[in-house]
Design brief:
Protein name: GGDEF domain-containing protein
Organism: Aliidiomarina iranensis
Bound molecules: ligand C2E, magnesium ion
Length: about 280
């Protein structure tokens, strides 16, 4: 932040900036300690198909700070990215998610569920990314064909070729890829066609509105329809995130969306609080 400011203005550290820097550095130190001391926990949010049957989960990390309580990834992922601790954090997330897959491998229903894991740009760009994921699958014994890695459009800026090579290597052992938050970033449609993707996730800003209304329809129905059509044209499975109402679910279903995720179905929850698989 200081560097960014420095490009346009002459640099002088006022008290405010100094305080902000101290806080950020302090957060970086705290987060590092928290990772080492096992304060991270994975929550899981279910994903359902058109029949509202669960087909998988997305792993979403939380930080339980001894004093501050639960901290959202929105408030610490960027700090981890800045400090480089995202590599340590990402490795822990991948390992923990794979262990959960293994724990489900003998469950009559959950053994079919996929596990989606968010991957950050620094992880994907690291030279050992493919080796690390492969090693993680080997160490845990998790089935590669249940693992879906979620990447975002902004990761594709620059270095696209080497990212495609890594994606192909992982896909050759069965790992799948989803493009997360689609429509909000840098949309280069020619990239989209070249990327070895399996799923396209419509960003939740097109799905749900900010109003707290149980009957609310889609926030941007023309855009969700366009994204679904685009996904289908490219042969991808289309996933909608942020589905908060029945009306949104029904509208997306009639637009051809395949998989749905959101508060209408379930909140992200602790592993042991996931819905019991009973009814079909
Ligand atoms: P994301 O991957 O797009 O995950 C979806 C976010 O939307 C989650 O927020 C989820 O709780 C929230 N959400 C789900 N359904 C609804 C809904 O119906 N309405 C609304 N308003 N929100 C909904 P969360 O858990 O706070 O995570 C935020 C972001 O943090 C994630 O966005 C992802 O980019 C990042 N993140 C989370 N876990 C990890 C991780 O392990 N590694 C990395 N690199 N990033 C992570
Ligand atoms: Mg995601
Ligand atoms: Mg998303
Ligand atoms: Mg999102």
């Amino acid at each position: 932040e200081a560097k960014d400011a420095g490009r346009n203005t002459s640099v002088f550290f006022d008290d405010d900036l100094q305080t902000r820097l101290n806080t950020r550095l302090e957060m970086q130190r705290e987060l590092h300690r928290g990772i080492v001391e096992n304060e991270l926990e994975l929550f899981y949010q279910t994903k359902v198909n058109c029949q509202q049957t669960c087909v998988g989960v997305e792993a979403l990390v939380r930080w339980f700070h001894p004093v501050k309580g639960m901290i959202s990834p929105v408030d610490f992922i960027s700090i981890a990215e800045q400090s480089g601790d995202i590599l340590l954090l990402g490795k822990w997330v991948m390992h923990t998610a794979c262990e959960t897959l293994v724990a489900w491998s003998n469950d009559p229903i959950r053994s079919d569920w996929t596990m989606s894991v968010n991957v950050s740009v620094r992880q994907l760009k690291a030279d050992n990314f493919v080796a690390e994921v492969t090693q993680c699958l080997q160490d845990t014994g998790a089935p590669a064909n249940k693992l879906i890695l979620e990447i975002t459009e902004s990761m594709l800026l620059g270095n696209t070729e080497s990212i495609i090579v890594k994606m192909q290597a992982l896909r050759s052992i069965g790992v799948r890829f989803a493009l997360d938050d689609f429509g909000t970033g840098y949309s280069n449609l020619s990239y989209l066609q070249r990327l070895p993707l399996d799923q396209l996730k419509i960003d939740r800003s097109f799905v749900s509105t900010n109003q707290d209304q149980a009957t609310a329809g889609l926030a941007q129905p023309q855009l969700t329809q366009s994204i679904i059509s685009l996904g289908k044209t490219l042969g991808l499975i289309v996933v909608a995130e942020g589905v908060e109402t029945k009306a949104q679910f029904e509208a997306l279903t009639s637009q051809g969306c395949d998989i749905f995720q959101g508060f209408h179905f379930s909140q992200p929850t602790r592993l042991n609080a996931l819905p019991q698989p009973n009814k079909k």
